[in-house]
Specification:
The complex is a heterodimer of chains A (about 230) and B (about 220).
Chain A (H helix, E strand, L loop, with lengths): L1 H9 L13 H14 L6 H7 L10 H13 L4 H38 L1 H30 L4 H6 L5 H25 L3 H17 L5 H19 L2
Helix pairs in contact in A: 1-2, 1-6, 2-3, 2-4, 4-5, 4-6, 5-6, 5-8
Chain B lengths: L1 H18 L8 H12 L2 H17 L11 H14 L5 H39 L4 H34 L9 H19 L4 H18 L1
Helix pairs in contact in B: 1-2, 1-4, 1-6, 2-3, 2-4, 3-4, 3-7, 4-5, 4-6, 5-6
The chains are: A mainly alpha (about 230), B mainly alpha (about 220).
């Protein structure tokens, strides 16, 4: 229950994000609530200290909150582990949630959305948020139970390998999506299929060299010109 | 009524994007589904959504980085495709280009939000007492307002600029094919971005292409 309550409060903890202390204000808020749930009333000075610079991945912050409260109860090094885990979980979360889960959720939703927009909308929100909410709402209890050894949990579930599995799945589903779109737009027009192949290869070639928005602007103008010339 | 709902949704997008929730209500593909259902042009909005989503998949908020406002892009383009009677490709291209251009100033407003949050935090810090809940509520409120004001304003400005400079070219070209070609190009970016062994990744992609072609 405590984990659910902390999870709920963590939904709002980023609202004061700024370049001075990033998520520090939210972390202080979260810690005060989490400590209160464990019967600890933090001093004003302690809460004030927690508003210092803090930044991590928003879905994994509750693990850190759990570790912090546990260490605080045991007169341990709560601020040391807060700093250590904030950067580690920042990297973990970015590489899985932002880098890998979003493309897979998108491509699944796009395939589903081609049949029915409601299905696509539900597919994205349910698939993505099932991972998001599980981590968010269980994070505090796991962090509190394992304390400073919380990293064991991530090793146990092989979390650092998840991005690779999800990226491979994304590549597969992107293939399916492109096939379907190409089939529905051009059927067996070999010229269009050939051009689409050139397009995807061009995208791959330019990906690491040209900013995506600039690349998009150039390709839009070229495509418009191409379609105008060919009358497609 | 639908426009009023869209404006309110803009506020929710802004909050969900950086201030609270992170439930992905702000992803371009989700925005395109929602606005498509709201305005009744689901297919056009879907094609807009996949293009702006592709930008967001590559331009990621790693660490403290502020990515470009792909959510605004999807919001504005979906709204404009509903508001404007577009049936010629040059008009679509013009809308896309104007929206892409407007993404930059709208992204700047996120810096303003963070500066506002910083000012509030520093002011309380100087007084020696910080009220986190008050700061979080103000931050969320400001973020909601940012969405309502700047998303609507950005969309309105694109609309006005479009009226000013759009031509009277009358070519009936295939909008879906245009979007598909753009999306295929962006898929190249996404494939390079995905982390897996290069040849394995491309082999799986090819397998997906074949599967899609055979099954679908």
């Amino acid at each position: 229950m405590k984990s659910l309550i902390v999870g709920f409060f963590s939904l709002f903890y980023q609202a004061n994000m700024n370049h001075e202390n990033m998520q520090g204000t939210g972390f202080a808020f979260l810690i005060r609530k989490a400590a209160a749930l464990n019967g600890i009333s933090l001093e004003v000075k302690k809460v004030f200290e927690q508003t210092a610079y803090f930044h991590t991945h928003p879905y994994l912050v509750n693990f850190i909150a759990g570790v912090w409260v546990k260490e605080f109860e045991q007169n341990g090094e709560e601020d040391f582990y807060k700093k250590t885990y904030s950067s580690a979980f920042g990297a973990f979360g970015d590489s899985f949630f932002w880098h890998s889960l979003r493309p897979l959720s998108f491509v699944i939703a796009a395939i589903a959305g081609l049949y029915n927009p409601w299905l696509g909308l539900a597919a994205y929100l349910v698939f993505y948020n099932s991972f998001h909410l599980i981590f968010r709402f269980s994070g505090y209890s796991i962090g509190y139970a394992l304390g400073k050894e919380v990293i064991v949990f991530f090793n146990r579930i092989g979390f650092n390998r998840w991005p690779m599995y999800f990226d491979v799945a994304s590549a597969f589903f992107f293939g399916i999506l492109l096939s379907y779109l190409a089939k529905s737009c051009s059927d067996f027009d070999s010229v269009v299929l050939g051009i689409l192949t050139v397009y995807v290869l061009t995208g791959m070639a330019l990906a690491k060299k040209l900013d995506i928005v600039l690349g998009l602007v150039i390709i839009m103008i070229l495509t418009g010109f191409f379609l105008f010339i060919t009358g497609a | 009524m639908n426009i009023a709902l869209a404006v309110l949704y803009a506020g929710v997008i802004s909050v969900d994007r950086f201030a609270a929730f992170n439930l992905m209500l702000s992803r371009p593909i989700v925005i395109s589904f929602v606005l498509g259902l709201l305005f009744g042009n689901t297919i056009e909005c879907f094609y807009v959504g996949i293009i702006f989503e592709a930008i967001g998949l590559v331009d990621v908020p790693f660490g403290t980085r502020i990515p470009k406002e792909d959510s605004f892009g999807a919001f504005a383009a979906c709204c404009l495709l509903t508001l404007l009677p577009c049936d010629h490709l040059p008009q679509y291209i013009l809308i896309f280009l104007l929206v892409l251009l407007m993404m930059y100033p709208v992204t700047m407003t996120l810096h303003i939000t963070r500066s506002f949050n910083k000012a509030l935090y520093v002011r309380q810090q100087k007084r020696g007492r910080i009220y986190p809940l008050r700061l979080l509520m103000l931050g969320m409120g400001f973020s909601f307002l940012r969405g309502v004001v700047f998303y609507s304003l950005g969309t309105y400005l694109v609309l006005q600029i479009y009226y000013l400079i759009h031509g009277h070219i009358d070519y009936h070209l295939n909008f879906y094919l245009f979007c598909l070609m753009i999306f295929v190009f962006l898929t190249g970016y996404i494939l390079r971005f995905l982390s897996a062994r290069t040849y394995f990744k491309y082999a799986v992609f090819m397998l997906g292409l074949l599967t899609g072609w055979v099954i679908l």
